[in-house]
Amino acid sequence: MKIDIVSVFPEYFDVMNLSLMGKAQDKGLLRITAHNLRDWTHDVHHSVDDTPVGGGAGMVMKPSVWAECLDELLGPEPADGPVLIFPNPSAPLFTQRDATELSHAEHLLFGCGRYEGYDARIPEYYRSRGVDVREYSIGDYVLNGGEVATSVMLEAITRLIPGFMGNSDSIVEESYTGSNALLEHRQYTKPAEWRGLKVPDILLSGDHGKVDRYRRDEALERTSQIRPDLIERLDCKSLDKADRKTLIALGWEVSSVHPRRV
């Protein structure tokens, strides 16, 4: 996968050379290039922003600078080029489903905003040119720029590429994964007792069937407590008898298409 990132702080992405992301680049799975948006400016101050039309606080990133940069990186046939992604706190929430979809792309281009954000005509223009433009939020909060959000999305996306993770089963069992996504069960390691706190006995039993059932029940319980909205999205037809029993005990009705609170 080829990944281009545009930022006024390209050195922020030096961290991509570390850990699994760095190893993936060494193996040829990824090719990450961070570009400085100021390289496409023409004034002595290399300015990339201007005052907001209509007044207000802060500065807005200029479409002219972004256009020169994106025109070059997208190439002569932008509709056949990369997926163009802008982090934006006012956009739809980035989810595991989005990460899975984007992990199949050949080329991603991230544009990191700063200040009050980028001129709204930038994504509008490139959509009109046939470019696959995505705007995503990573949560209900505001950051100083798009660099952190880009890093979050990149890690979520690239770790799903075959060969990125040492053990592919690690991905299958994680939170939010699959069509019937749940929060993952809690994890433990040795020793079996630490500072008076014990690992649940069933995990030491050696009975893999009982261990799997315990973990599944705990995943259902944790999801019910922390993210009941995920329980509400489950397909009741996909639930086995033990799942149904657990959900009923947790206060859910499971005779409809989706579970609902009693």
Automatic annotation (TrEMBL):
SUPFAM superfamilies named in the record: alpha/beta knot (SSF75217)
Binding site residues for S-adenosyl-L-methionine: G113, I138, G139, D140, Y141, V142, L143
Single GO biological process annotation from the record: tRNA N1-guanine methylation
Gene Ontology CC terms, in alphabetical order: cytosol
Broad enzyme group: transferase
Enzyme Commission number: 2.1.1.228
Quaternary structure annotation from Swiss-Prot or TrEMBL: Homodimer.
Listed name of the protein: tRNA (guanine-N(1)-)-methyltransferase
Originating species: Bifidobacterium callitrichos DSM 23973
Organism phylogeny: Bacteria, Bacillati, Actinomycetota, Actinomycetes, Bifidobacteriales
Gene from which this protein is expressed: trmD
